[in-house]
Amino acid sequence: DIYVNSVSALGLAMSMGLVVDYNMHMFLTYFEIEDCTTRDERVKKVLRTMGKSIFLGGFSTFLGILPLAFADSEFFRTFFFTFVGIVTLGPGHGLVFTPVVLSLIAPHTVKPTLAADVAEEEVVLSNKINID
After folding, report:
1. Exposed, middle or buried by CB within 10 Å (0-12, 13-18, 19+), for 98?
2. Got the DSSP string for 50-109?
3. Do 109 and 38 touch, CB atoms closer than 8 A?
4. What is the DSSP letter of 25?
């Protein structure tokens, strides 16, 4: 049994930062990609790039806390069980739940262009029309 005490509360506070970190990397990478036209293409590209990093980050965090499982202290064992939940749920959300949500409801438009860019495109298009 794990009871809520100062140790588990500290672990839960730290876990919020880790879980948000896993998901925000996916969201930010999704919105930084510019050369894809559909949501599915963007999600695949995000998983190919950021997915590996999120998996390795979760796995290395698990390896880092693994020695705590063999500790005799109740403090360390509570910390270990708290972080096992974090390391499974955080990357799980980042690698499974977030990409599904992004592929279903995220916007898939290209980032808006500046007015100067639009004006340049109009000049280029008008020059092409005059040449033909």
Report:
1. buried
2. HHHHHHHHHHHHHHHHGGGGG-S-HHHHHHHHHHHHHHHHHHHIIIIIHHHHHHHHS--P
3. no
4. H
Q: What is the pLDDT of residues 12-44, one digit of tens each?
A: 788 888 889 999 999 999 999 888 889 999 999
Q: Is the dihedral of CA 71, 60, 4, 96 positive or negative?
A: negative
Q: What is the DSSP letter of 35?
A: S
* Pair of tokens at residue 50: 């950021």
End-to-end CA distance of the chain: 79
DSSP 38: S
Residue-wise pLDDT tens digits, 116-131: 555 555 555 555 555 5
Do 87 and 15 form a contact (C-beta atoms < 8 A)? no
pTM for the model = 0.71
Q: How far apart are CA 82 and CA 16, in angstroms?
A: 12
